[in-house]
Known about the structure:
The structure is a single chain. This protein is of the alpha+beta class. It has helices spanning 13-62, 158-193, 195-208, 224-267, 272-297, 308-322, 344-361, 390-401, 412-423, and strands spanning 63-65, 71-73, 89-94, 100-102, 121-126, 132-140, 149-156, 306-307, 329-333, 339-340, 365-372, 376-383, 427-432, 438-445. It has three domains: 25-164, Beta-Lactamase, CATH 3.30.450; 224-297; 306-445, 2-Layer Sandwich (Heat Shock Protein 90), CATH 3.30.565. The protein contains nine helices and 14 strands. A five-stranded antiparallel sheet has the order 4-3-7-6-5. A five-stranded mixed sheet has the order 9-11-12-14-13. Helix 4 packs antiparallel against helix 5 and helix 5 packs parallel to helix 9. The longest helix is centred in the first third of the chain and has 50 residues, at 13-62. InterPro entries: HAMP_dom, HATPase_C_sf, HATPase_dom, His_kinase_dom, HisK_dim/P_sf, Sig_transdc_His_kin-like_C, TCS_sensor_his_kinase. Its EC number is 2.7.13.3. Keywords: Kinase, Membrane, Phosphoprotein, Transferase, Transmembrane, Transmembrane helix, Two-component regulatory system.
Amino acid sequence: MTAADPPRRATSLVVRLILAAAAWLLLLLAVGGIVLALAFRGAVEEEFSYRLDAILKTIVASIEVVPGGGFAMSRPLGDPRFDRLYSGWYWQVTQPDGRQLRSRSLWDSSIPVEPGGPDMQVRRAEGPNQEKLLVVERDVEFPGQQGAAHVLVASDLREVSGGVQRFELLLMLALGTLAFGMIVAIVIQVRYGLRPLRQMLADLRSVREGAAARLSGRYPSEIAPLADGMNDVLDKDSELIERARTHVGNLAHALKTPLAVVSAEVQGNADRTVLTKQVQLMRRLIEHHLGRARASAGTGRLGLKTPVRSVAEAVRAVLAKIYQERGLEVDVDIPPGAMFRGHREDLEEIFGNLMENACKWAIRRVRVSAQQAQDNLLIRVEDDGPGISAERQAELLRRGRRLDEKSPGWGLGLAIVSDLVHLNGGELAFSKSELGGLCVDVALPSR
């Protein structure tokens, strides 16, 4: 995949939600249907086994012991199914000596006997016609007989399978109808639930086409934070664009006068000194506005943290080489845990300009300190230079707050520092230092 290839789209969110919900629903209905079918079959077979046991008790009541120790039926059962050959209904009595008394439906066949007891036993067996039988049996002791006789009654399981199969078919139809209805409900629910996302997409198209400046729709609480985040990004982009326009306008306005002077000089007898002065002025104006534009573009990004002490130490090391001949003492008093919420370059620009300015005006000493308050990072840069009056301090603060074109005054550095501080949501203040010179306080949000 090359950079020119469009990004591959994942499966639709609607399809994912519907497939996941439908799969889980079908699994639950299948498991529930199987459990219900097995429970119904077990209940039917249990009830059928009790019916067979009732017939077994009737057979026991009809058996009498004949002279010689044999068994005989004293009266017929009255159920023709036991008289029809291989009808699927059988009874069998096995005497203690192994002789058997059987129903006519068994003819000359027999059902294998398994050891049992006086309680009812239920099992499955194969009949004389290879049919599947449900067998109910128990051992019964008769008066005058030594040992217990084994009596069983068996019936073809098809007697109950037909009803069970009809129930299973009805259950499948009911569960299938329920599944279809619930899947339709899931589709409606998912599409209705995701309607705000489609509305957000339509609003984004309006923003892209210029019909709106931001997302203005009413969104549910789950996606409202997403809309607010998008609006923050749109507002930030709009702010950056407006700043860029302002910088371009200011630069164009500031260059008009120098360009007019250069044009006039070129048309007449050009004065090299005048031209050099105007070129230097234009270069300074360009650097001024480029510095402010860079400061505006580099702020406002989330998730960044910069250690304050390492930046201040790095700036001190550079300034120590620059002002080595003057023997300035630059003290840095910053706790290791102090963090700036923003780009390292922004903090380097702030420290670099403030500390360079302090070194420029200091006599012997510059002090740099910082502390992490609850909601703010407080930075202070002081020097023991001549300082400035309160009126001049107010003028510096006023100029620092303005973004339109002004003569640099205290220089380009403080203008850029002022822009960086305010673009990062902080405040800049000037006062008289305890060392005797200027004290510059910077408060930057730490959250």
